[in-house]
Protein 1
Amino acid sequence: MADTFNRKIDELIRDVGAGKLVAGCTVNQPYAQNQHQSLWFRHTNGRPLYLGGPLLENAFSLVEGLSRKVLTPHGSELKSGMQDVAEEMARYVLENAPKDTGQLSLSGNPWVTDNGVIIYDRPSIAPREPD
């Protein structure tokens, strides 16, 4: 029994890998951080903390979804699960960033790194506006 368990754990380590797997979403507009952090702005369509707020509000379900990707009948799908998380973060920007401020809501650039190497990087819908 212990031999089977150890063998399965070794398979899991090979499938999942080791190191640091990171998902993120960059909002690359010159005014993005100011719009995100400024709680005193009166947004008519959108909210402050447009990425961080929804990320914290949905953290449990995001982690729960990732946990389902660690072990699947086809091996680990954790990297694709992290891509899903990065895309979800871009959706938070799309839905929650103030719409009365340029192209901010279209500026989410989702990405994933594996041990510092970019394995997923979808450009934002809107290009960076001039400073």
Protein 2
Amino acid sequence: MTLNEIIEIQATIDKRKPAKDTIEVLNNQYYYSKSKGLNIKLADMHIDHFLRAIKISNKDRKLIDIETQEIINQQKKTLRNIKRLLNEQ
């Protein structure tokens, strides 16, 4: 079942149209599928694939955060060394 189908079912159950911004996100945001090698509209993604994609994106984001922190730590160490060298002169 795709996200678009889920939104349609929800609209039927709630007896009202989905929010405009929800529809805009579903129709205008894409996820790049590495296995298929193409962008997939969120509206066309199956719910289980969407949830996996979010999980993977969060893992990637956490890795990027870790790498960024390592760069910051290295820069701090370099600055401390520079300050130490300047104080020695």
Protein 3
Amino acid sequence: MSSSSSWQFRAAGHHDVAAIVELVESTYRGDASRAGWTTEADLLDGHRTNAEEVRACIDRRQSLVLLAERDGVLGACAHVAVAGEDDAGYFGMFSVRPALQRGGVGSRVLDEAERIAREEWKLAVMRMTVIDARSELIAYYERRGYRRTGQTKPFPYGDERFGIPKRPDLRFEVLEKQLVR
């Protein structure tokens, strides 16, 4: 992995699981997440991830959990994987500590994830799913070159691994970006 500015990037190991779960939860759920702009606290209760799910991302073939650390402190993470469909990568579980949001580390993590997919895995496209009610998040990704595909996926109501919905109209929208230059 590489570094950018003072942020150091590396792939997570099993010893990082608890810190990753704490970071993801603080980014998306509960009152602590409201300090940042990426909170889903108004849309979902419950948990965003757990140790078993993070461990599975780490162990999966052609998959890694990318960590951004500065001075030994975890500031951000993302799951990057080969999607297993038509030369595409997958980007998800993107989390930046709320106090660090809007400071540039998220953009650096996204850049590094795209570099891994493009240069190391030779993938042409990066895909992700975003809850379509998250217009500010979709706009962020559009500024970064992602486009709305028009494809949607149903929100898995009743599956608490994705959280406990606070409204009945949630669904995922598929975004993608061409990586080949």
Protein 4
Amino acid sequence: MGTPLLKGLLWFDDDPKRDWRQKVKNAAQRHQDKFWVTAGVCYVNPVTIDAPAVEGFIESVDGVDVYTRSNVLPNHFFIGRRKQDEGSTPVAATATTQLTLL
């Protein structure tokens, strides 16, 4: 499946009025809020973004690499971190440290 995910979430959005890029941004924001780390990769069904049935890289949306995969259900966005990002520092590491000290 390409780049494996360590931690992620499955985002559902079937609003036909919203652009798929905005849906990826919304999923990335939810990932950020939930895990306090920036998502780096998102897998979507080609039907969701009107892409050819060929699986592979589509484009980067605000730093999130978008790939099509036929095993992801339509209107679902599997978003998370790449395995190589495992050692990266969480975005809110400073806030976490401060909360721990209180």
